[in-house]
Each structure stands twice: as C-alpha cells, then as structure tokens.
Design brief:
Blueprint: H1 13-30, H2 41-63, H3 70-99, H4 107-115, H5 119-125, H6 145-167, H7 171-196, H8 204-208, H9 210-213, H10 215-226, H11 238-261, H12 267-289, H13 294-298, H14 302-309, H15 311-328, H16 338-364, H17 367-378, E1 385-388, H18 398-404, E2 408-411, H19 435-441, E3 453-457, E4 469-473
Antiparallel strand pairs: 1-2, 3-4
Helix pairs in contact: 1-2, 1-14, 1-15, 2-6, 2-10, 2-12, 3-4, 3-6, 3-15, 3-16, 5-6, 7-10, 7-12, 10-12, 11-12, 15-16
C-alpha cells in the first residue's frame, strides 16, 4: 500500500515573481520607450516553470520507486496550456475575420502551428520579427512563441530527467549536468549572434529559437535537484536568513535595473545578458522557495497573488487586445496614459473571465466528468432525446413535435414509445447508476401517462457543464 505523502507546499512568493514578469512584459509592449527590458519578464516565467516541473518530478520519482506518471503529467499540462490558448486563437481569429481582414494572411498556418506547439519555429522559417512594434499587419499572436517553447520543454524534459536520474547517482551531478546543458544553450546564442548579427539586422532568430532560449527553463530545472521545496526548513538561524534575503535583494535590484534599461537590440543581451538575467532569476527563485525568507513573505501579498494566479491569461490575451485596440484607435500617441490604462483594464477583465470560466474549470475536470460529457454529446447534449407529450407519439415523432412547438418529456431509449420505462443512462457511474432504473420500473405504465424525467446536477460534480447526471422519474404527467 502506498504510504501517505505530504501535500506539495504552495509557494506564494512565486505569484509575486509572476506578477513582476507579466507587468514587465505588458509595460514593454505598451511603452517600449520607457521599459526597454520588460521582455525579460518571460525569463522569470521560464525559470519558475522549470523549477516547479522538476521539483514535482523529483518528488514523484522518489515516491513511485523510480517512475514518472507521464500520462498524468501530460494530461495536466494539456489542461493548463490549451483551454486559454484555444480561446485566444478562436477569439482573435473571429475578430480578424469580422473586423481586421487584412490580418487573414497565413492565419490558418499560425493557428495550426500554435496548436502543434511549433509556432516559434514557424516564425523563424517565415521571417516573422518580434521587434517591429505595431507594424502594418502585425500578428496579434506574435507573443505566443513562449508557449511553444514551454510545450516543447514539457515533451522533451521528462525523458532527459529520467535519463539523468538513471545515469547520475547524486543530485549534485544532476545539477551540474543540467547547468551544463543550460550554459551550452547560452553559448550557442552567443555563437549564432557573432556569426550572423555583427553586421546588424533583426535578432528574432535568436529570440525565438528553442535552442537559444531553453537555458532559462534548464536553470530552473537544475535548481530543483539541489533545492527541493519540500526539504527546505520552515525556520532558519538569523545569519542564514540575512544571507538569503541579502542575495534576494541584490538579485532583485539587478533584475529591476535590467527590466528598465536592457534594450532588445543590445549586443550585450545576446552575448550573455539573457543568461545573466536567468542566473539572477534562479537565485531569487531559490530565496523565495525558502519558507523562512522575508522575500517569500513580501511577494505573497493578496494583490500579487491575484495577478500571479491569472498571469498566464494576462500574458496570452494582452497582445491581441493591444493590436486590435491600437488598430481601431490610430491616435494612440496622443493619449500615452489614457489608452494604455484602458487597454490594461480590458486585459484584466478578459483574463479574469477566462480564469473563472475556462482555465479553472478545465484544470480541475476529472476523467468521470469527461466521460459524462461525452455521453451527453452522444445523446444530443441532454443525456437523452426529447419526445413530444401529446397523443400516442413516441420518440420517433420528434420531428412532428418540433413542427408543433409543443413541450416534451425526455426519452432515454432513443426510440422507445412514450409509455415505455426509460433505460438507465449509460456512463452515469456512482451509486445513482442503478437507482434510475429501479425508480422507473414502478413509476408509470401506459395507463399513467408519460414519465417526466428530471436531471439533477450535483454541484460537487459539475464544472463547466460536465456533470454526472442523476435521473429520477417523478411519475408526474407531462407539462
């Protein structure tokens, strides 16, 4: 029997880091003249993601005796990544089709490459620039390259992790090997820059490439081997706390200075600047992961928690809102404060709606709920068919009922006459599965009129319309 495992600790300070990251990106997109290095916020997301994914792998590997539940992992990643991604792709595509038809060029390829998590490579192959701010016909999807890199990491890293765990016997060696891979990626960025960019040009190839950007995710992964969240002491001696908070302060100050001043066209960025920023982020992640530090408590405030938990949605919705808004209002430069405030407000509203009604329901949907949802789709979305409540008509006469517009009762049998006892709905599961049939046996025969079936949805089991349906025959005549 599997021993009980402590629940994974929620690190609230990471919400604060995500907040800093997403604010940096938005300010860079809105006012690149004032926040030249805001794009570096993406590196914060990468380091945090690499740390959390690998930290979870280490715990599961130890718990499962050297195995990973890859099906469970990929399922969670799909539920986390795709619902909002599909929403922004569909929503923005619909807007383009209706109001911005000049953006229809390559739209189907953009959507497909995003869904396949290779959009960053499609951008490289098609010469798409990240740095032409609001150029004519700029795609509202240009920022989604980050999701493709994360998706590729999710696919590849579990197998590299297992290989490291099998071949290397200590976490110190695993840390060193992973950092070696990260530094190799950073070195490759420098080499490519020296080979292709010394004469000037657009550095988008270096900016988009998985090979030249994976180092931030790998640095977070490396940290998890030697700084596992579950083994960090909740309290530390004063000198240790002061040391950690001091490291965090130095890292935070240097990162803020970079976010404000490091231009996306600076040669220093590609010759070690991004790698250096990721190392600073790695240090700050280590400090915040410790439950004993002041930095962890400082970044766990309610405002940062709210923004941080919605940072994924804020990130993916922000660029379409900016593109569409600023294409609609051409005089953006005349309102350098008002219009950005309006755009941010729209982004936050859309992100909150997405978080409540799309991302959270999708993240918590269970396999039984998916099965129940599939059954509902198979039976016309109601778990049954509607049949008329007049004359001797049965479910075979539904077309006549539609023509007459009369109310009807639900027929489970897919063609049984109205006097027949409906069969229990397949796929219900749980203790109610057999009860429906029992209730229906004595509910009503032909002499009592049709059976009105009522569908009860349990609040505990119902999310986003995915419900275990409990069917109960009332024995009342049709309405």
């Amino acid at each position: 029997m599997e021993s009980a495992q402590p629940k994974r600790r929620y690190i609230g300070g990471f919400d604060g880091l995500r907040t800093i990251g997403v604010i940096g990106v938005i300010l860079y997109h809105l006012r690149p003249d004032l926040f030249q290095g805001g794009y570096l916020g993406v590196l914060l997301f990468f380091v945090i993601s690499g740390y959390l994914i690998t930290d979870g792998f280490v715990r599961q590997y130890d718990r499962e005796g050297g195995k990973l539940k890859l099906g469970q992992f990929f399922g969670k990643r799909i539920r986390r990544l795709y619902p909002a991604l599909v929403t922004v792709l569909l929503g923005a595509s619909a807007y383009i089709g209706l109001f911005a038809r000049d953006l229809l060029v390559n739209l189907h390829k953009i959507v497909i490459s995003n869904l396949a998590l290779v959009y960053n490579w499609w951008q490289i192959a098609n010469g798409q620039s990240y740095f032409e701010r609001f150029a004519h016909n700029e795609s509202p999807f240009v920022h989604l390259w980050t999701l493709s890199i994360e998706g590729q990491y999710y696919i590849i890293w579990p197998f590299i992790f297992l290989l490291l765990m099998k071949l290397l016997k200590t976490n110190g060696k695993r840390f060193a090997a992973t950092m070696g891979l990260a530094l190799a990626s950073g070195l490759w960025m420098l080499v490519l820059y020296r080979m292709t960019m010394l004469g000037g040009g657009d550095p988008s190839r270096l900016y988009y490439g998985t090979d030249t950007r994976i180092f931030a995710l790998l640095m977070g992964s490396a940290l998890a081997f030697v700084w596992p969240s579950q083994k960090l002491a909740p309290d530390l001696p004063l000198p240790s706390r002061v040391l950690l908070d001091g490291v965090g302060t130095v890292a935070a100050v240097a990162m803020v200075a970079s976010l404000l001043n490091l231009s996306d066209q600076s040669s220093a960025l590609y010759e070690g600047g991004m790698v250096g920023f990721s190392l600073l982020a790695m240090a700050l992640v280590a400090v915040i992961a410790s439950p004993a530090t002041l930095w962890g408590k400082l970044l766990s405030n309610p405002v940062f928690h709210w923004i941080g938990t919605r940072s994924y949605g804020i990130y993916i919705y922000q660029f379409p809102v900016m593109i569409f808004f600023e294409n609609a209002f051409r005089n953006v430069a005349d309102h350098p404060v008002l219009y950005p405030v309006i755009e941010v407000a729209i982004i936050l509203v859309i992100s909150e709606l997405s978080y409540r009604f799309i991302e959270q329901p999708a993240a918590h949907v269970t396999k039984p709920q998916l099965q129940a949802f599939w059954q509902r789709l198979r039976h016309g979305g109601t778990g049954g068919r509607f049949c008329p409540d007049w004359g001797d008509a049965g479910c075979d006469d539904c077309s006549a009922w539609r023509r007459r517009g009369r109310p009807g009762a639900v027929c489970q049998g897919g063609g049984k006459r109205r006097g027949s006892a409906p069969e229990s709905q397949p796929g219900n599961g749980g203790p109610e599965k057999g009860r429906a049939g029992k209730d229906q046996e004595g509910a009503a025969g032909p002499e009592k009129g049709p059976v009105l079936e009522q569908i009860e949805q349990s609040k505990q089991q119902c999310r986003f319309g995915l419900c275990q349906q409990q069917v109960r025959a009332s024995g009342q005549p049709g309405l």
